[in-house]
Write a structure and sequence with these properties.
With about 180 residues, the chain is an all-alpha fold. It is about 65% helix and about 0% strand. It contains five helices and two strands; from the N terminus they run H-E-E-H-H-H-H. A hairpin with a 2-residue loop joins strand 1 and strand 2. Helix 1 packs antiparallel against helix 3 and helix 4 runs antiparallel to helix 5. The protein starts with about 35 loop residues before the first helix and ends in a 7-residue tail after the last helix.
Length: about 180
């Protein structure tokens, strides 16, 4: 059978097209599910996550992380706290791994792979986890309280994204059949 909307070949018992999300001529179909959030995830969020993670890694690895006003004090900070350099480099490596994983997750979602939802939720959880571990490690090695309001809001936002996206993709699991 072929989708009336996009022309993709679909299984006869499909209620929705796995490519465009529109209902098939099957009588089980009710109202089509919106796919705007899905498109935002694959075209905007994961693309931005790729570049932001690479930028974060570049900032750390290039030695442009700590500033006092306009003066770069990264080397001075590392001389006073050498273990902090190791923590920062580990975080930069984690950022690179997250950037690569974001590309993989995007490809899984674009191709409507069955496990794509789990990879996406894992990506969000890893982003949150690496940030929490990094903040805690910086605190341990430098005794600097790095938890601020913006960081707390980011943590809450990530936790909400994990739960909301889990519900969102659960309602659309019939689309991810490849």
């Amino acid at each position: 059978m072929f989708c009336r909307n996009c022309g993709s070949e679909i299984e006869n018992e499909s209620v929705f097209c796995p490519k465009c999300g529109k209902p098939t001529s099957n009588d089980k179909a009710t109202k089509p599910l919106g796919m705007k959030w899905f498109k935002f995830i694959i075209y905007v969020q994961l693309t931005l996550a790729f570049f932001i993670n690479l930028l974060g890694a570049y900032i750390v690895l290039s030695g442009n992380l700590y500033f006092d006003g306009a003066t770069n004090i990264t080397q001075r900070v590392y001389r006073m706290m050498p273990t902090l350099r190791f923590v920062d480099i580990c975080y930069a490596v984690a950022c690179i791994l997250l950037a690569v994983f974001s590309v993989y997750v995007r490809q899984q979602l674009v191709n409507y792979k069955q496990q794509a939802k789990y990879f996406y939720i894992l990506f969000l959880a890893l982003n949150l986890g690496f940030s929490l571990v990094y903040k805690f490690a910086v605190y341990l090695v430098s005794d600097i309280g790095t938890i601020d309001l913006i960081f707390l809001i980011t943590v809450i936002e990530n936790i909400l994204l994990i739960f909301i996206n889990n519900i969102y993709f659960e309602k659309r699991k019939h689309l991810f059949v490849n």
